[in-house]
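Allow me, if you will, to draw on your knowledge of protein folds for a short while. Thank you for your consideration; the sequence and its tokens are set out here:
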Amino acid sequence: MKKLFYVFIPIFIILIIVSIYGDGEWGASTEMPDKDNWVGAWTASMQSPYDEGVSHKGFENQTLRLIIHPQVSGKEMRIRLANTYGSNPLSIEEVHAAVSKNGAEIVPETDQQVTFGGEQKVTIAPGEKEFSDPISFEVNGEDNLAISLYVSGDTGPATWHPHSMQTTYISSGNHVSDADNSRFEKEEAWFWLDGVDVIPDPPVKGAIVVLGSSIANGNHSTVDANHRWPDFLATRLNQDTSGINMSVLNAGISANQLINSKPDKGENAFARLERDVFSQSGVKAVILHQGLNDIRHHPEYDAEKIIERMKQIIKSSHNQGLEIYGGTLTPFKGSGMYTSRGEETRQEVNHWIRTSEEFDGVIDFDEALRDPEDPERYLPKYDAGDYLHPNDAGYKKMAETVDLSFFK
């Protein structure tokens, strides 16, 4: 009898729960795991507006068409808008998504309205973000997307991502559904849009976030070509026959630093970990490639100061259950801020990255890009011409340097 008692008690408890919540509530709860299936397909790290120019002026009665490149395909999509650095509530009257065709052109039959809580208009409080409602939208990892935003009232200074290496199209009036190029002017920056998530189809293992500065951002790569090294890495991951399908999210900010950053260059890498890395949907791993700007702009920093900050980022990432991989700092001899002392610091930091075993793995960008005859400089075929940034071929080489087995 005791055995029967222990068998029937759990069944009895389940029946009570069903009777309390009813079939409707019970059915709803079984769908909740689907909420965990979102994976970041694209991101841009937001910055505060400049003291002058387009971000300072903001927008009024204008449409902004932002062109982005999702790194994985999906059957559903949602977008994330950010008023991170706004001092006033941001009201966006209408948002549309479509497949990008050429320039500001879209594929008309793919155009869809995006809503927020079932409403066309969304208002975002200062310092906050808002996810859109999910929409059924066939996201193709090989196609660009056009996200069109219409603002009617004066937005004031705008949260943005300059140096996007991608053209944004701006026009007067509401043209979120216009299919052609005729009404739009150009700006190389993204505004307010800081993320796109998908329900991946086919499934992927999650997302890798690249935390870095201008080299991660893709400075000096071909504009509108998606030739940043994280773009090339995403292509490798999703074409490789090993089955390591993952999204790559680019959290690079031009001129950003590990320790101190000016307000218009984004918060320092450690300060923006939660917002730009840990909060990303489906994040599984981090690649850190940063520190060279600290060496260039702060000759008083020694290697230990930079290493200490890297250790903090490693510890925080591990505390989040994420693996983190370190990229060695690339050559910069010949650039305007090169010093022999800075070079010595770079070498010491790179030695630590390679030998300390603090990272879960090492990506030796320095070895891949340096000139064997003059290892303090780029190999000329990988140099963008400023002795600091790679060109398209250099960015491709960086992506090829990543050991994909890290992500198995």
In short: The CA atoms of residues 63 and 175 lie 6 Å apart. The first helix runs from residue 2 to 29. The chain has two domains: 52-195, 204-407. The chain is about 25% helix and 25% strand.
